[in-house]
Amino acid sequence: MKKQLLRILKGSFLMGLFLTLLGFQQVQAQQQVTGTVSDAEGPIPGANIVVQGTTNGVTTDFDGNFSIEVSPEDVLVISYIGYSTQNVTVGNQTTINIILVEDASQLDEVIVIGYGTALKKDLTGAVSRVSSESFENQPVTRVDEALQGRAAGVSVARENGAPGAGIKIRIRGVNSITGNNDPLIVIDGVLGGDLSTLNPNDIASMDVLKDASATAIYGVRGSNGVILVTTKRGSGKGQVNVDFFTTISEVPDFLPTLADDVGEFARIENLRKLSIGQNPTFTDAEIADLVANGGTHYQDEVLRTGVSQNLQISASGSDTDGKLRYFLSGNYRDEEGIVINTGYQQISLRSNLEAQISDKLKVGLNLFGSRGETKNNFERFGNGQGSTIAKALTWDPTTPIFDDAGNYNRRSIKGIGSLNLNPVLTLNETDAKDVDEQFSGTLNVNYQITDNFSYTMIAGTRVNNFNLERFTVENSNDTPAANFSTNKFTAFQLSNIFTWQKIFKDKHNVKLTGVQEYSNNKTSFNSYNADNLVLPNGFFFAETGTGFSISNNASERELSSFMLRAEYIFDNNLSLTATGRYDGTSVFRPGNKWGFFPSIAAGYSLINPAESTGFISNLKLRAGWGQVGNQAIDTFGTFANLDGNIYAFDGGAPDPGTFITSFANEGLTWETTSQTNIGVDVGFNEGRGNFSIDGYKKITSDLLLEVPVSGTNGGGTVFQNVGETENFGIDIAVGYDIIQNENLNWNANFAGSFVKNEVTQLFGGLEQIEGLVTVPGGQARRANLIELGEPLGQFQGATFLGTWKSAEAAEAATFGKVPGDAKYLRDADGEIVFGAIGNGQPTFTWGFNNTITYKKLDINIFLSGSHGFDVYNLMQAQITGGAGDSRSFLASDQVNQWTPANETDVPATVQLFNSSRYVEKGDFVRLSNLTIGYTLTDIAWLGEGTTIKIYGGGQNLFLITDYSGYDPEATSRRPETGDNSQGNADVAPGINVGAYPIPRTYTLGLKVGF
């Protein structure tokens, strides 16, 4: 898959190298030998032919031909990067034709570094590779499943377990407080791709650029790391592959609640009513009936077993001379959610074509299109009072779903539990569709101007239409409402890349890469809302609504860039890389539009793999420093923002008007991240094992923070370059072929990442800033906090100290409390202290991947874990009840609540939702994948070369954790945009107000190759 790229970029200068060697070697020629070097797909330009034991050698031309003068007793050594070396004795032969065979272990040594490639042994920056071979033995539907736990320094997590849910990827911690911390995705050279829609079966490799010396080539786009995705190319004889698997999904465990013992729920509800001076809700007869007949278990009613299918088909190959290569693929996903009436469907198509027009000209065209439709994404239902899962867990279990007439019981008959609409009604009667349509096209043209100088043009375009069509019965008036929004995104990119490379005097390898690049993207947004539909028959009757609102927006931004990278390798031991990128953006004002982002790195091989004969086959030291930027504001972020309203100034008819919500700041400029990296790479036991360790420190300064403006100056906010964050971390990667023989092989790889984040500077002498996540339950308190000297992701709340005991009745009375009430830490004035009570950012994540093959049987075992973080389990707070719209106690531990005879620390009365009582350790170890497969080959009735693989297994088969919720990795929050924005997700990780559970899945599949 990498061969064509290597041939063009490396073949020509290798010819120059060996022709230079000829000038230094006196050869006694006795006969002329000609021939060709090729592989399964055609001729190989730039292959090396050397007389063994001498420097007499040549390289093949662009058609794979060579000619060399040799003696009959000479042995020719034929080699090329990515292929096994062959030795041929000349004898009396005058024509020698060689077919090289790929060497997978060497192919993995070629790494994509952005605007070019490099051998792994020559790398100076921190780069991790994830190849398709590492995940091909597990049923992967999403790219995050392929990337998670396989690259040190890369944290990958699903936002929740909903079908089609987003992917959260962070490289070496988080930098920005208000800006986006997502890494830059580059797919086949085009910047700004979307991993969530990409078919994993299309991926050949993913190379992750982690340190600034590697990411500086992308300047302002590379501040959060870069993931370079290379999709597959065709080669050799035509081949068709079909992979179909079906999956059964279920919630691993139901949460214990008093809905399991509805009679006990009724007794405790009576006690709650008495404690607040009200009459009991249930009579003794009603309680007896509930004990005898039970109630409605709404958790069970909204969760189900989901069945999903995934079909992947691809065709690949090349013509007989290898000059036209093709890869075509299609993917269809149909996923049922484990929550009723939720799901996801996607279809995607890809076409990758590559043509060698002439010896010097190569053209490639990649096209990709996808359409995904999410059914009832309840993250968009409005989570101010918790998600639909939270509402199901807090709904009155004594009220049936339907009344005697067969109609929904819209609310609790007794007016207890959650005061929201019946969650089964909400899910079944809601028709919401998130439709995501994407198309991208890439034209890649390469021209070999001379043997040492080449030009590459990459022209790419992306179009994304995201439409939301929503009909719901859940709103404040209990009447149907409809909403429609469309977000259209278009982008194009033009990159001109010039590469010059030359080897001087056998030892000095110099490579220069120059880039001129321009990118542009436009976004337009339109939406309407219609309330109180007269005809409650669906989304397309919105015009019958009595209340309307319309919203429109548009933006455009441009980025113009120049980059120069110099690479120098001395004697295959010392590697130096220096990069400078100059970016200009339309986001900032004149005088601040341009930023320069430099980097420098070096690597030195104490033990060179080409020269090693001992157990340690490679020992390399690396060090680098660089700077990258971040334009972490909206397109018009330097301007004042206005909003509109109507107001009756003189008490008469209201007049329309506008007011300022944020002020202009013409002096805004980039956030800048400076990073220092030191690394060691070790190879041992003839390449069977490898070990890498990197230590780094990142400092992000001039943060773009939204600073409040005092009311005397008009109120609102203004963006300023203030604040600073730091990330310190260590990445470790270990791999070893534990068993390696003819019938049995066991390959194991471990990747681990430790990172410590700290806010080192805020503004105006502040030591903390309140976040934007509001605690459910109507208590109007913020759940998150940005605190000086602490990591991003702080939870805010009161410190829970148990309950007031009978012996403390007098002290409790001074605060208006009685024994049995919740007790919290208070200050000297007697006020409850609200502060940091936990943190949701993991400090250590890891993955351990094992692939075992025995003859035709293969097993993949993948374990992953995350440690050093907390979960703010606000869903448990709602189940506990006692406040807001979740007034009843439904937590199972409420059976042990405080009584005069049993003075426990379980409060018997109203309590705060945001307290340390609901902060839990989130550490976990997960069996992410276990798959067993058996491959049948040479099946006569299907044709020669046909293979069939039958496989089965499971994902998320076990989870080791002390967390009491469904899954510590899943969180829930409102979308990050709009009037209800909850800010940057990295400022509020680990907060759960009813996340969609991450399912346990069982898979059975079939792969067929023709």
TrEMBL record:
Residues 969-988 are annotated as: Disordered. Its main location: membrane. Pfam families: CarbopepD_reg_2, Plug, TonB_dep_Rec_b-barrel. It is found in: Cell outer membrane. The keyword Signal applies. Residues 1-29 form the signal peptide. Residues 120-226 form the TonB-dependent receptor plug domain. InterPro entries: Beta-barrel_TonB, Beta-barrel_TonB_sf, CarboxyPept-like_regulatory, Plug_dom, Plug_dom_sf, TonB-dep_OMP_SusC/RagA, TonB-dep_OMP_SusC/RagA_CS, TonB-dep_rcpt-like. It is a multi-pass membrane protein. This is TonB-dependent receptor.
